[in-house]
């Protein structure tokens, strides 16, 4: 299945997106094989990259599937670009997120090449009370891989820095031990590679490859759920690496025991080492993250704007960054420094207004009344659907309508873990956008609660 002919890739892309789009967007870009089955498309700046990602996400995915390769899009720091990119974006190349350094590139996926491709390092990771323990363990693991904490199991809801920390570990280990075989990959990639190796009868190579790593970092292992063959394979890989004191680092969106349909023998192994979770960052940490992220841009964003963003995007750092990116994009079209007013206007519809006098008690009572269930049931751990749904709605609304933190809300629900509240919030937030019926119910409830 392996191919290393760049023309094959270009042709496939051209076929899928059409000649005209190809010529406009890809013709002038450098495409390079960065390692076996792994290609990088170099774009001149972040805007170009985002544009290409947004517009051609699906065809690029299709090509990557069809040719069994990974295709990453990176910003080229070294003027990799040859010629004639659309002129609008050339102007933009002076703009946000152009890093001062010329060595690093954007959004890496894999570490096995000697060229380090990591954006996520310890240097640009902000440590706060929410991630202190995870960070400390990550540093210890980087200094003594395989010696201190093995396996290292990192968990948190989405967008709180697991991948960042894992890649920072990988980069740091590689820097200090260039001879090490280090592999960072997502559980999905691991599964896909396993399936391909079964199809191609190359399972022995697959096994050898992973069982001889010095450091293996497997991201988002909640996706092992229900995948029996992958679990089996990973179990043996784990054992071999563990027995040879090779470092194993795993991440998941929840604790191992909370992953359904994960074999007990795997759960118990994941518990052998050390676990650390990451919580949502507090206000100060969020501001610090925004400061760090805006450091390398040429746009000047005033502290009050950063604080405004930080107070409105609270539970997911990716969203926080998304908001900053929007502000950077807005400021691009202004000749003067962007004002807080402009930013506020832009975000108004999404802005949350925590209402102080609303308490979780009030919310819980109204929900129970509406769904005709008891407070005891609401705060219990019963898994019946007729209770779970109101409970999740109540948790979601507590977060949306009050200023309480996830752990604090957890306490109102019979002492539930903050991750439970976060999950419910994340889930309902999505459903609110996609499920019309639910949206109507929730809107009605909000009206009632606000009184
Ligand atoms: P996860 O893997 O948990 O879903 P990511 O590692 O992808 O989350 O993080 C989402 C984004 O937030 C990334 O761009 C990452 O750089 C950023 N981020 C998360 N935590 C921090 C932090 N403590 N300091 C700086 N950036 C962070
Ligand atoms: Mg991740």
Q: What does this 3D model show about the protein?
A:
- The protein is α/β, with parallel strands linked by helices and 451 residues long.
- It has 4 domains: 6-77, GMP Synthetase, Chain A, domain 3; 118-277, Rossmann fold, CATH 3.40.50.300; 283-346, Helicase, Ruva Protein, domain 3 (Orthogonal Bundle), CATH 1.10.8.60; 360-450, DnaA protein, C-terminal DNA-binding domain (Chromosomal Replication Initiator Protein Dnaa, Chain: A), CATH 1.10.1750.
- Helix content is 53%, strand content 9%.
- The protein has helices at 6-17, 19-25, 46-66, 87-92, 132-143, 162-176, 187-199, 203-211, 228-243, 264-270, 283-295, 303-312, 317-332, 340-347, 360-371, 375-378, 385-401, 406-412, 418-434, 436-450; strands at residues 31-35, 38-43, 70-75, 152-155, 182-186, 215-219, 247-252, 274-277.
- The strands form 2 sheets. It has a 5-stranded parallel sheet with strand order 5-6-7-4-8, with helices on both faces. A 3-stranded mixed sheet has the order 1-2-3, with helices on one face.
- The longest helix has 21 residues, at 46-66.
- It is globular, with a radius of gyration of 24 Å.
Low-confidence stretches: 79-118
Dominant shape: globular
What is the name of the CATH architecture of the largest domain? 3-Layer(aba) Sandwich
Percent in strands: 5-15%
Number of strands: 8
What structural class do the secondary elements suggest?
Answer: alpha/beta
Q: Over the alpha carbons, how many angstroms does the gyration radius reach?
A: 24 Å
Biggest sheet record: 5 strands, parallel
Biggest sheet: strands side by side, in what order?
5-6-7-4-8
Q: Work out the helix count.
A: 20
How many domains make up the coordinates? Answer: 4
CATH topology descriptor of the largest domain = Rossmann fold
Bound molecules: adenosine-5'-diphosphate, magnesium ion
User: What percent of residues adopt helix (DSSP H or I)?
Assistant: 40-55%
Q: Span from first to last CA?
A: 63 Å
CATH class of the largest domain: Alpha Beta
> What is the H-and-E element order?
HHEEHEHHEHEHHEHEHEHHHHHHHHHH
**For the record, what is the CATH homologous superfamily label of the largest domain?**
P-loop containing nucleotide triphosphate hydrolases
Mean pLDDT: 84
